[in-house]
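ok so I'm stuck.
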Amino acid sequence: MIFSQKLAAAAAINRRDMLRIGGPGMLGLTLPKLLQAEDAPVVAHAPKRKAKSVIFLFQWGGPSHVDTFDMKLNAPEEYRTKYAPISTSVPGMHICEHLPETAKVMHKIAQIRTVHHTMNNHNSAGYTALTGVQPAIDDQRLRDSLDLFPAFGSVVDKVAPNTNQLPTFVSFPHTISDGSTTPGQRASFLGKIHDPLFIPNDPNDANFELSQLSLPSDVSLGRLGNRRELQKIINSQARQLDQSAAAQGLNAYYEKAISMLNSKQVRDAFDISKEPTELRDAYGRTTYGQGCLLARRLVESGVKFVTVYFSRSIGGRSKTEGGWDTHGFDDTRMYEILPEFHLPITDHTLPVLLNDLDTRGMLDETLVMWFGEFGRTPKINKSISRDHWPKCYTALLAGGGTIGGSVYGESDKYGAFPDRDPVTTGDLAATMYHAMGIDHSIEVKDNFNRPLPIANGRPVTDIFA
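replied:
not stuck anymore, here's the structure
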């Protein structure tokens, strides 16, 4: 059940507000044996679609929930945040003082304050948050494997793919890792054809372009066609030796990639230079800021699922780069670093994105998700910072039919555990699919041909109008 602090006093607010072609790296292509092509399942009882697209702002490193959106102002000093609270656009609701612009749009955001799982390490927790599925063990050395579940966007590409020449799933500008590449960013056992169109280029670069969708200067489309004909002959011969789905899937993958090369619609969608200077400045001339703008541009063009990674690394001592993992130092670095980089860049992008979508009439049909792999320990450690805490943390959802200003679930007085209405990452996945009109009980086949539901949980329907 939802509680919203003194929502009745905000009657004046609208109810919806309240409540290189040919190379193996192209589009993430690696080994053809990883492909497993099969027909998409029939959706018999899909929920009513509210969101046409999803923008997933993944906060790698793990933001502290008790220092941002679920502040425990009455907790003992050893638990209480070092930041002051400020009022928001929802009466009675407070958030961190370093998020003043975000405070102005909290009536557009639904909070789920009881997300939880059991993975303490970044790679296993990251995989859990990116897929909604927990691995068998909590292991920092967890690596990408066909035994693991696919990314949200890959599932969407499997069960509800685009039919408009645009990719279903796009991700940028980082491949996140902590020692090894974090699983859950690609299609896994669904096959490489469902991998995201991954863009490693910096959208804040003055020379930003899609090398993935650009021909070498000495190759024309006609010449590419000739190469394709040659490839067809080679593949035909290869199929006489190998009739596997992998080989056939690889053909489909090439066809998909080449169709993008021929698509002006795709090239235009990624041309961020067409955005007004004032708007680009508003989003912030940073990799993450321009990434959020590019995400809006892509969903406006018809891309269904966009993942924007906050940072490549989990974090550290830097005040100019890195993710939210700033604990474990012998001083107050956490409380010094966050107000210098992480909180300002968040405050300079999230509200701008939501307002931009709203102004364009897109917010109702675009679900924006903001969360990381876990939260932070309620109790402050000896280094005056907070450690990993997956047992209770906050996820933000906005648009896509959600009730802005609402809060689902309540953590205990320390922000340590769910006190009411716990939500698993599987529930969070089901909630996202529900918003997109996708039946969360649809099954896909894993690497051993076992049927698995796309979400191990139930949607939190209470946050939808």
